[in-house]
Write a structure and sequence with these properties.
The structure is a single chain. The chain is of the alpha+beta class and 149 residues long. It has two domains: 28 residues; 98 residues, Immunoglobulin-like. The strands form two sheets. The protein has a four-stranded antiparallel β-sheet with strand order 1-2-7-6, with no helix packed on it. It has a three-stranded antiparallel β-sheet with strand order 3-4-5, with no helix packed on it. A hairpin with a 3-residue loop joins β1 and β2. The longest helix is centred in the first third of the chain and has 19 residues. It is elongated, with a radius of gyration of 23 Å.
Length: 149
């Protein structure tokens, strides 16, 4: 008789996604956690050009003073908070679909990034981080000298 190992029906990642979906879908109906207090993470695009690695994060409604950017041990840490508007009383809202609260994102960086020269710009709700490559990591063009006979 062969030994059969038990395995969960769903892999952990799929199970976590299913639990999150059910919680977000039925929380308002069941009177649980308000949608405005859900955790959120800003979406990012990361691309590379010849000179640097660039990260763009969507942070609409986030005050740039409420964002912390840190590079440590080849890891980029992006932390911040989108605060719930206090101008309108909670009972006056008909619907709250945007997420509020703190967020934390971390990204592994290649060794070729010069952490001392990282620059951050914020415009129209988009944070752009430009992370230049170290000089030795940049592509070099080598000229071929042709010998004349």
């Amino acid at each position: 008789m062969a030994i059969v190992r038990y395995g969960p029906v769903f892999p952990m990642a799929a199970q976590n996604q299913l639990e999150r979906f059910l919680r977000e879908t039925f929380s308002p109906v069941l009177g649980e956690e308000e949608a405005s207090t859900r955790t959120w993470a800003p979406p990012v695009d990361i691309y590379e050009n010849g000179e640097s690695l660039v990260l763009k994060a969507e942070l609409p409604g986030v005050n740039p003073d409420d964002v912390e950017i840190r590079v440590e041990d080849n890891t980029l840490y992006l932390k911040g908070e989108r605060k719930f508007e206090k101008d309108v009383q909670e009972q006056n809202y008909h619907r709250v679909e945007r997420s509020y609260g703190t967020f934390t994102r971390t990204f592994s960086l290649p060794n070729s990034i010069d952490a001392d020269k990282v620059a951050a710009n914020y415009k129209d709700g988009v944070l752009t981080l430009t992370m230049p490559k170290k000089e030795e990591a940049k592509p070099k063009t080598i000229k071929i000298n042709v010998a004349k006979n």
